[in-house]
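This section describes the prediction task in plain terms. A model, or a person checking by hand, is given the sequence of a single protein chain and must write out its three-dimensional structure as a string of tokens. No templates, partner chains or ligands are provided. The sample shown here is typical of the held-out split.
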Amino acid sequence: MPLVRLSLLRGKPRAYRDAIVDNVYQAMHERFNVPKDDLFMIVSQHDPEDLIFDRHYMGMERSDDFVVIQLSVSNTRNQAQKNALFARIVERLQANPGIRPDDVLIHLLEGDKGNWSFGRGLAQYVL
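The expected answer:
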């Protein structure tokens, strides 16, 4: 179960934000085999003074469409799977809502399956 945090500048329309959510989710489904009902995302909009990023780090040309995608996942995937997910997210976001690849920063946080509780105070993955 990935838990995804999306951070972007304030002011994007609802349809734009929905397209990001849908396309990140679809990419996770396609590349990480995330089940159809496994959707947990937090969308945060920030004023420019609260979303601070270098517009040229690593040779990128970032714009006000910059989005940070942070995925918390179980540590069960190899680097090839991670690379495939990164590429698919960028591909899907470029198609809809039209975010340039330089404007997509993805950070994957991995942890043991025992670190997850889906409710009721239980670690369901390790019961």
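For orientation: Helices lie at 14-32, 79-95.
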